[in-house]
Structures are given as structure tokens and as C-alpha cells.
Amino acid sequence: MPTYSAFDGTQLAYRVHGDVRKGVHDGVREDVPLVCLPGGPADSRYLGDLGGLSAHRRLIVMDSRGTGRSAIPDDPSSYRCDRLVDDVEALRRHLGLRRMDLLGHSGGANVATQYVARHLQNVRRLALIGPGTRAVGIAVPGAMRRELALSRKDEPWFTPAFAALEAITEGTGTDWEAISPFFYGRWDAAAQHHCASSQPDNKEAVAGFAAEGAFEVEATHAALAGCEMPVLLLTGELDMNSPPRAVAEFAALFRDARLVVQPAAGHYPWLDDAGRFVAATAEFLDHEERVTS
After folding, report:
1. 251-285 tens-digit pLDDT
2. pTM to 2 decimals?
3. C-alpha angle with apex 186: 181 to 189, nearest 5 degrees?
4. Torsion, CA 84, CA 247, CA 187, CA 46, rounded to 10
């Protein structure tokens, strides 16, 4: 697994899926891979190759510091979301990329959004999948999550999962594992295996991600107002982490945003329906190439 040195010398790892596929971008023939930022912070293995997206684009999948095969930093404050932006820039420089396409899933969308706010010229297209919204100050009310949860009242696992969700919402419970079925379009064997193998295991990294100072909402809004690149915001119809209404509000911050709500999907749309997810994402990423080549 290849590694590179971050801004503070921490050795960070990344995975590569797919082959180099050169295309014409702004009249220049070059390789523009898709750099993928996981949420969590968790081992990036849970992303896999995003349901087969690697057949359309070379994927460079980061392991955030302190997760997967990336080293634990000496300074715990470097887990903060705004500082993780520097790790993405270090990876771009390590790969020798003039520009890249950037994808962020869940909490990784907060890193991707702040990266674009600081390094707009380095990104061709931005894809935010089941995006976290803290970087832009969009709150997801408990009532919105509850509404989505109740839409699944006929599921066999609903009663204990909903009871756990109500307890968490009211501040009287902490059984996060019990509400896992709400994050998948289908709570089948594949979803249960994925859930069991994708939990964050570095509590310090999780706690430090949103520490004080991690998000500069006003500055990010100002930067995004001038962002003219195409942006895809894709979320699942049933995604309780990133409800469609909250993601639609996020999309409204960009000049050229495409909002896709994947039917019957939860927080991991490439697992719920790989074909639909890959078709929507690949079409977005390849659109300019087909037009200009």
C-alpha cells in the first residue's frame, strides 16, 4: 500500500483502484484521477471501489491520519477537520497532479468542501456523497431524522432500532449499534457485514475531527459563492445521516450543483444499488470529457 509524507511528517497511506485513463480536459490530455475521502474518520476499506466506479475512473482512496494504515500523528490536534485539508493537498503534490476530481463521503465531504474553499484551482469536479454538512453550518434537526426513520416502520428490525434512536435523540441512550439498520437501504447479510467491518476504531481521531476551530462556516460560504466548478451532491432517499432536504440546502450554496436522490438507498448508496450509483456518478465525472474529446 503506497504512502506519502503529510505536512507534519506523518506517513499517510492510500489505495489505488483502476487504471490510468487519460482524457481531454480543458484542451489538455491528462490523467485526472478521482481522489476519495472517507468519512468516520474510519479505515477507507469500507468504500471499496465504490461499487465498481473504478471501471470508469482511477480511484485514489485516502486513509485519514490515525486510521487504516496511516500513522497516528504526534499532535492529536491535527485530527481537526480543517487541518486534514493539508493532508489532501500533500497527496495531490505527492501524485504530481495539476488538477484532480475530488469525492468526499459522509464526514469526508466536510474535508472536501474545505479543500475546495482553499484550493479551488486544483479541483476539476467535486462529488459529495451522503455528505456531512458541518463545514457549511447546515444543521440536521432530530425531527427530520425521525421522519425518515418512521418511513421504515414496516421493517422487521424497526421496533428495537427506533427505540434506541429515540433514546439517543432524547439524550438517555448511547446504543449506536442498535440503530445501524437505518443507515442501509436493505438490512441484509451484505449490509450487516459492511457495518461490522466499517466502524471507526480511533476514538481520538473521531473526537478531534470536529474540535473547536474545525469549521470556518462564513469563510467557506464566501469561497463557495465564487465556485463555478460542477458539483454533484448524491444522497440516499433513506439516508438518515444526510437527509435529502438537508443535502438540497447544501446544493443551493453552489452555482453549478446537481442534486441526485437515489431511490431506496441509505448512507452507502454504492452498496444499496451499485449500478444506479455508478451510472449517476460516472456520468457526472465524464460529462466534460465526452463533450470536449
Report:
1. 999 999 999 999 999 999 999 999 999 999 999 99
2. 0.93
3. 85
4. -20
Amino acid at 79: Y
Closest of 38, 39, 41 to residue 206, by C-alpha: 41
Residue corresponding to grid cell 479505515: 43
Q: How far apart are the first and last CA of the chain?
A: 33
Condensed to tens digits (0 to 9), the pLDDT of residues 87-106 reads: 999 999 999 999 999 999 99
CATH H superfamily, domain 3-137+201-292: Alpha/Beta hydrolase fold, catalytic domain (3.40.50.1820)
Cell 458539483, residue located: 231
Domain ranges of the chain: 3-137+201-292
Q: What is the pLDDT of residues 40-91, one digit of tens each?
A: 898 999 999 999 999 999 999 999 999 999 999 999 999 999 999 999 999 9
At CA 60, angle to CA 276 and CA 30, rounded to 5? 95
